[in-house]
């Protein structure tokens, strides 16, 4: 175990330097002003061109955020609804985490982890999600050595938040009501 700086074994000191370097990379500021540009779509996204869900499928969405997120049409409609309320950052974070988990290359995983952190997790991020300090701390620790599960705790918190808050609002909205007419 690493105790006191003077008594640090060589390998422990190397490990500490390695962690410092990785955290430094993760916490770097954007290199140019172009990195700060946030794309803006003037036209709202339309639901993906897939078959409209059956009434039974749409009714299942009321009780299951997962069923809604698994259906392309439902996901696109939910995203449009959240955009109309200027609250799409939670869904975008959840989707970014899903894509992140599919990355195989360690280099690409580290790059993507940094982007997700900068866009959604760090203080004053452009699309900062509302997670507690404890969850943020766990996520930062997980990012020292990025893995497919680095964002799992934060993603679960955001999923629970969407289930408790966003889904009920969506179900009451006209975006959803058109499916169950």
UniProtKB/TrEMBL annotation:
User: What is this protein's record name?
Assistant: Regulator of G-protein signaling 5
Record keywords: Cytoplasm, Membrane, Signal transduction inhibitor
Q: Would you tell me the Gene Ontology cellular component terms?
A: cytosol; membrane
Q: Which superkingdom, per the lineage?
A: Eukaryota
Listed GO biological process terms: negative regulation of signal transduction
- The answer on whether this UniProt entry bears the keyword Acetylation reads no
Provide the species name: Ovis aries
What is its subcellular localisation? Cytoplasm; Membrane
Q: Which PROSITE patterns match?
A: RGS
Pinpoint the RGS domain residues: 64-180
Q: What does this protein do?
A: Inhibits signal transduction by increasing the GTPase activity of G protein alpha subunits thereby driving them into their inactive GDP-bound form. Binds to G(i)-alpha and G(o)-alpha, but not to G(s)-alpha.
Q: Which SMART domains match?
A: RGS
Principal localisation: cytoplasm
